Amino acid sequence: MPKVIPEYREEAKKKIISAGFEMMSQKGYCATTLDDIAGHVGVSKTTLYLYFSNKEDLVIEIIRSVHADIENQAIEFFKTEPVLDAYIHVLDLLMGKDLNRIGFTHDILALSARNPTIRTIHQEHMNKIIEKAALGIMCLQKRGEARTNADPRTMALALVSLMSGLSSLALKGIEPEEIRQRFYETGNIILGISDINRDQ
């Protein structure tokens, strides 16, 4: 762990955020203590307080970091992949390599019911995601690659809701491969891709 001096401050903060995310994903938000995180990073709890006043402040920064990471990766997917393949890659990010990622997401969503700051962060993130998805769908419509008889925002909300709901099914024992397949099939229906291909 770097010394707490200005040029290392941001690097140290990122390490704490990363450790907090890892520990909370493994143990859950409620079961994770600042002592756990400090031990994982290899610093004292007092050092954590130089960066975060409490666990809730830390989780707010973790949420912002996770959102930014997903958004940045999604941008790259949508630049290079067909639209539904890009959505599948984002779905894989949401599901993670194990159930811990989804469990963490559910812990944080539960917190947003009681914490207005966390709720606002989620609202801003979702509004941004839905707006970008709707703009992408408008582009598909203009190119004749998506149905034009439905509102782009409605389709964006449907795709984002589908992704959110299906990713949660992994916690209930549905295999990731089936989740991907069902998203792909339903995404085709929402966007009308099958109908467009059939009409050509």
From TrEMBL:
Annotation: DNA-binding region: 33-52
InterPro entries linked: DNA-bd_HTH_TetR-type_CS, Homeodomain-like_sf, HTH-type_Tx_Regulator, HTH_TetR, Tet_transcr_reg_TetR-rel_C_sf
Matches recorded under Pfam families: TetR_N (PF00440)
MF GO annotations: DNA binding
Residues covered by the HTH tetR-type domain: 10-70
Annotated coiled-coil segments of the chain: none
Gene3D superfamilies membership: Tetracycline Repressor, domain 2
Ranges annotated as spanning the membrane: none
Organism superkingdom: Archaea
Alphabetized UniProt keyword annotations: DNA-binding
Entry-linked PANTHER family: ACREF/ENVCD OPERON REPRESSOR-RELATED (PTHR43479), ACREF_ENVCD OPERON REPRESSOR-RELATED (PTHR43479:SF11)
Name of the featured protein: TetR/AcrR family transcriptional regulator
